Amino acid sequence: MVINVYFYTDIRAIKPKEGTIYAALSAETPKGEVWVTHQDKVNANNAGANVKALHDIIAGDKHHIDPYKGSRIVIHSMSPYVTTSLYTLKKWADTGWKTSKRADIAHKEEWQEINCNLRGNQFEIINETLESEAVKGFLAKFER
After folding, report:
1. Alpha carbon distances (Å) from 72 to 11, 50, 82, 141
2. Contact 8, 30 (CB under 8 A)
3. Could you read off the pLDDT of 27-44 as tens digits, one per residue?
4. Pick from 64, 58, 57: nearest CA to 115
5. Which residues pair with 129 in a beta bridge?
6. Which among 27, 53, 77, 87 has the fewest CB atoms less than 10 Å away?
7. 29, exposed or middle or buried, with CB in 10 Å at 0-12, 13-18, 19+?
8. How far, in Å, CA of 100 to CA of 94, rounded?
9. 79 to each of 33, 46, 47, 49, 53, how far by Cα in Å?
């Protein structure tokens, strides 16, 4: 089974600012396509808001990917920070969640939980833009 994970924030600032995060996952099941969505207000910078959105849909209180353990996960990312960080998860875990200068990585707890919940699943990352059809379809789930 393939699980598609999407996340987005309207925060573009480098300094913390109030905004909204949007996250969702979709899966094709024997009963049809299933969508799980999550939306929340946050006070964060762009990187922090994107990490929180991804965290909340993958590793948040409900652990949305648990029912699909063993599935292939496709993460649709518009955030270069998150994309780079996802490729660095194994290295961070091996080095005690430290940077090359031995400081704790930013958003350490969220990354640890994301890493824990992605284990046992193959995942790939697709770099998306706001104009891509996949992202437009995901964001349409939040329109009223």
Report:
1. 29, 21, 18, 22
2. no
3. 988 888 899 999 999 999
4. 58
5. none
6. 87
7. exposed
8. 12
9. 26, 9, 8, 10, 11
